[in-house]
Design goal:
This protein is 50% helix and 8% strand. By secondary structure, it is of the alpha/beta class. It folds into two domains: 105 residues, no CATH class; 92 residues, no CATH class. Strand 4 and strand 5 form a beta hairpin. The relative contact order is 0.10. It comes from Actinopolymorpha cephalotaxi. Keywords: Signal. This is Peptidase MA superfamily protein.
Length: 224
Amino acid sequence: MVFVLVSAGLVAATRPAIAATLCPRCYGLFGLGGDIYTDRRDTAYRRIVDEAESDIAAFYGDLKTRPRVLICSTAACYRRIGGGSERGKAFGTSALMLAPAGANRTIATHELSHVEFHERLGRTRADVPHWFDEGLAVLVSGDSRYLKPSSEADRCRLPYRKALPIVTEKWAAAVKGGTDQPYRQAACVVSRWASSHGGRTGVLELIATLRAGGTFGEAVDVSG
């Protein structure tokens, strides 16, 4: 028992985000039902998650995941649960956190897109590059900062030739410094690929191909 308590204490001290997702109430969060926890009893947060889940289900045809969601209304709360400068953060397929700036339908859908995509990929998740995962999340969430409206034939907010370099860049290096440009590039490349492959049909076929043993490079050609 002592070992368990010490281990739990070490997790809380070194990885508060993990500890907070395991025990939200330990970090002062309240349950809103549906495995949603916030620092403020506001049903608007529940609506945000419901709408985001609806967006994911609309894209994929159904919903395979319902992760635990932690939402903070203040920067102090988000720091307390282990958050940083990001608007939101997903933890595998089990949980995600939203900062005050990310407590909206668009960012919630973006983070839930990661969770749903990873769940559907299963063990093949490691075969998908970060740029595609992020670009898909922007596409599913319809983030107008990085994509034009769906009514536009070409949704890219920059020339395709300027977006394509993201395919060969290391994502961590590309986003270093907090620039949004990599998201704009990734969204452009993924939206162009998706539109030429039937939208969600292409994404579902990609998942099936990878799970059947195919490679990402063979399934996704974005050179054109």
